[in-house]
Amino acid sequence: MMASFEPRHIIVTGGCGFIGSNFVRWVVREQPDVHVTVLDKLTYAGNPQNIADMPEDRVELVVGDICDAALVDRLAAHADTIVHFAAESHNDNSIACPGPFVQTNVQGTFTLLEASRAHGLRFHHISTDEVYGDLALDDPARFTEERPYHPSSPYSSTKAASDMLVQAWVRTYGIFATISNCSNNYGPYQHPEKFIPRQVTGLLRGVRPRLYGDGLNVRDWIHVDDHSSAVWAVLTRGRIGETYLVGANGERSNIDLVRAILRVFGRDEDDFDWVRDRPGHDRRYAIDAGKLRRELGWEPRFTDFEEGLRQTIAWYRDHEPWWASAREDAEARYAEQRR
Length: 339
Ligand code: NAD
Ligand code: DAU
What we know:
single chain; alpha/beta; Rossmann fold; seven-stranded parallel β-sheet; three-stranded mixed β-sheet; 11 helices; binds nicotinamide-adenine-dinucleotide; binds 2'deoxy-thymidine-5'-diphospho-alpha-D-glucose
């Protein structure tokens, strides 16, 4: 294990999105000596409200594009670390319109890597389990760090490309980088285009949940705060050049999850609609986080998924102004994409 690294000034890219903003909140709460500069383009998925209540002397927001090399270089000159969350993150959008995914996820990561190289920054890259493709429902295997990459969607292929850029920059230029590949996150501030917030905000609007295909696809759910603590563990104690998978044994089929949500709303558990499947829809993801647990002693705190789900639903109930217009826009995109 490398000697413990102590970041002082972190550039958090995508810090106004779902996971990035939860990470900023986590750092402010748990790491009192760290200053954060959020670099975020504020796409449809970024909302400055997500970090508006953070203390001004700890967190500053720079609105800009990670592909803007001059801006990234200027910010890098005053920091010691980049934690890179910014991405186009939604599979359905990537199928309808892949261009921005290549630009932000590949070109943007390249730009950040070059700045890290020029300024000798510690770089942590946030990635996804989707780079490994999918598993069959009856396969006893789970993803490990040794599994070959086999991405299915435009989104996951651009994330795979960005991971490989990081690996090459470590080997060729000796930059100080690590990668974590996480499973499906849930929690507050998730955009209402994504599965759980889409169904929850729909039910709050009197709209029935929508299940793609046969509903048997499995996702491996983790609370976003457990993702944040894992990123911190890898950033401060992970070995340079290594990949760590992040997951919390949360495998669940989409149909079981929709029924769990319906139960919280006191609705009949068959009160949902089947809709056309997503093209290339990955069947199952499952993470073996043994390396992260053994090497870095990381453990998830949110082990009761039903309780985490209830808290998340309560958050959406209490934050209708936060999601109302984002939901309308997302549903307009879905109507266009799934004509
Ligand atoms: P999100 O879509 O909620 O947020 C993305 C953020 O990045 C937004 O604030 C957006 O404005 C910003 N952004 C987009 N393009 C940008 C650009 N060119 N320059 C600067 N900022 C830009 O995404 P998320 O769900 O929070 O995912 C964050 C990261 O975590 C992504 O890298 C994603 O691949 C990865 N990830 C997500 C999950 C998940 O379940 N959501 C799981 C594993 C990994
Ligand atoms: O595994 C990590 C990945 O998880 C991240 O890399 C992605 O950024 C993140 O978006 C997520 O990808 P998914 O495609 O798994 O998430 P999504 O919320 O879009 O869908 C979850 C599952 O639910 C998937 O099997 C598709 C299905 N689905 C989705 C929606 C929006 C439905 O059945 N109905 C829906 O309305």
